[in-house]
Amino acid sequence: MYNEISLLERTFATKYHYTNSMKRFHALEWEDLQWFPVSWRDFGTDFLKFIATKFNIYKPILPLMQRCFDKSGQNHWVDLASGGGSGLIGLAKDLKLNNPKLQITLTDFYPNIKSFECLKVEMPDTFSYEKSSIDAALVPEYLQNSVQTIFGAFHHFRPEKAKQILQNAVNTYTTIAIFEPVGRNFGSWFAMFFTPLNVLLFTPFIRPVRWSVLPFIYLIPIVPLYIVWDGIASILRMYSKNELQELVSSLENTNSYEWEIGKTSGQMPIYYLIGYKKDKK
């Protein structure tokens, strides 16, 4: 099936120039709204974490993350806009083999404390989290001496805010790595058709159990519909390679940094933007 999807995606992109011509559109995502029910938002991030962990979608970026640690010389990893913690548990276990002193701090503007606590329980010597709200564009000074990451969340930020995040990294000589598991492509759109079914099938296995949310999944399926809506909005919000290059080019002192923009190989590519201070020659 994956080969068929990949062929369809290539054919669609070639015929309609889909990937390059479509402009980013900052569509509404319900979870971004301050009044949106916290339990629904947290379930949404729990669902994304379950998918990322269950299918180990971020495994292809291991060499990229290791390069970030090698370039920075840091053992502290600060994850911004963590949501439910994405698929960090698998990455943490693998990276810990070569980085035994690795420490990971989870942060978010709307911190999912229950999910953060689950990660901390699983690897108590590695994970910690910030209980207070942390703005990814205004990282506190005590968290800046680190490698900073954003997994599956950079699209939440409008270009001005996205530029501020990158500029802060350059200004503080911070290594930053941004990863998105979907793009503005046929494969991502195709996957959205299966999201409601996946929510129904996977919910019994997602921890922690959020009992107050279950009626809005199985009796009145508002939550699956919100997750689909936000998934579609996320695709529309994704930054293309050209748009990322424009952001990087607009930064002050951008030439002092080495920037890598690309995607991993395979049937489920991860799109990435990595920046680190250039080595002195």
What does this structure look like?
The chain is built from twelve helices and seven strands. It has 281 residues and is an alpha/beta fold. The protein has a seven-stranded mixed β-sheet, with helices on both faces. The termini are far apart. α9 (195-202) crosses α11 (222-237). The model is unreliable at 1-20 (pLDDT under 50). It has one domain: Rossmann fold.
Integer average pLDDT: 89
Tell me the CATH topology.
Rossmann fold
Largest sheet: 7 strands, mixed
Query: Low-confidence segments, ≥5 residues, pLDDT <50?
Result: 1-20
* Structural shape: globular
What is the count of β-strands? 7
CATH class: Alpha Beta
Number of helices: 12
Task: Using brief descriptors, characterize the structure shown.
Rossmann fold, seven-stranded mixed β-sheet, single chain, 12 helices, 281 residues, 44% helix, disordered N terminus, alpha/beta
State the gist of this model.
With 281 residues, the chain is an alpha/beta fold.
SSE layout:
Layout: H1 2-16, H2 18-21, H3 38-54, H4 62-72, E1 76-80, H5 88-96, E2 103-106, H6 113-122, E3 127-129, E4 147-151, H7 159-171, E5 175-180, H8 186-192, H9 195-202, H10 215-218, H11 222-237, H12 241-249, E6 257-263, E7 271-277
